[in-house]
């Protein structure tokens, strides 16, 4: 059986990743696919417990290296438990964040640097690379405003607190943004940046176009 397709979504919180990942899953299902959805951190029982530590603002202070180590612990579990089995079964995996997020947030935002992140990815994740990465890059300020409003609503309505990263200063998020741009420039064959303040449908159309092209390529290589 041909190996499946690994698609990741990246971008700042508030960029619309989760919404677009769900819309893509629906588009794939209407075309006869059975996409496997996973998010990071989270997506497994162990991962969801790690997510609670990483995103809860009450987890402060958490050192940058401890934070990065937890990210990779979560990722290793998701790869072994969900991602690799699905790819081996020929399925399309749609993942909300992967190692690009760690490089952007811990490598860039926390200023650990890319080298340590990529080396851990090689050692812990077997250097597993997405076939396609959809990088959503609306205006930085708008992303942050949306993310902070969303987290406030979640805390008020459901008691969920996942605002630890959004509480960081704007300079942190600017470093994350710049690292994402650096990653896109470094890997143009894999990363498709979708930039500007587009509406949900406009972003979806660009995503569908990129995924459709990759599906055709995948079929030709099978």
Topology of this structure?
Layout: E1 5-11, H1 17-30, E2 36-39, H2 45-55, H3 64-88, E3 92-96, H4 99-109, H5 114-125, E4 132-137, H6 140-158, H7 170-186, E5 191-195, H8 200-221
Parallel strand pairs: 1-3, 1-4, 2-3, 4-5
Helix pairs in contact: 1-8, 2-3, 3-5, 4-5, 4-7
Notes on the protein architecture:
It is a single chain. By secondary structure, this protein is α/β, with parallel strands linked by helices. The protein has one domain (5-221): Rossmann fold. The chain contains 8 helices and 5 strands. It has helices at 17-30, 45-55, 64-88, 99-109, 114-125, 140-158, 170-186, 200-221, and strands at 5-11, 36-39, 92-96, 132-137, 191-195. Helix 2 packs antiparallel against helix 3 and helix 3 packs across helix 5. The mean pLDDT is 89.
């Amino acid at each position: 059986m041909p190996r499946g397709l690994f698609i990741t979504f990246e971008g700042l919180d508030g960029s619309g990743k989760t919404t677009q990942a769900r819309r893509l899953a629906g588009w794939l299902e209407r075309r006869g696919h059975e996409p496997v959805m996973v998010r990071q951190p989270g997506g497994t029982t162990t991962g969801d417990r790690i997510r609670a530590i990483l995103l809860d603002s009450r987890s402060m202070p958490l050192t940058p290296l401890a934070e990065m180590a937890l990210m990779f612990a979560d990722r290793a579990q998701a790869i072994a438990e969900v991602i690799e089995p699905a790819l081996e079964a020929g399925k399309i995996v749609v993942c909300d964040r992967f190692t690009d997020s760690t490089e952007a947030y811990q490598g860039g935002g926390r200023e650990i640097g890319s080298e340590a992140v990529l080396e851990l990815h090689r050692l812990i994740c077997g250097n597993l690379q997405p076939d396609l990465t959809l990088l959503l890059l609306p205006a930085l300020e708008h992303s942050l405003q949306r993310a902070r409003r969303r987290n406030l609503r979640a805390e008020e309505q459901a008691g969920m607190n996942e605002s630890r990263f959004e509480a960081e200063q704007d300079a942190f998020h600017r470093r994350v943004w710049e690292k994402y741009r650096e990653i896109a420039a470094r890997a143009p064959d894999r990363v498709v940046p979708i930039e500007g303040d587009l509406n949900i449908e406009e972003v979806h159309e660009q995503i569908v176009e990129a995924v459709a092209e990759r599906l055709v390529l995948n079929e030709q290589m099978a």
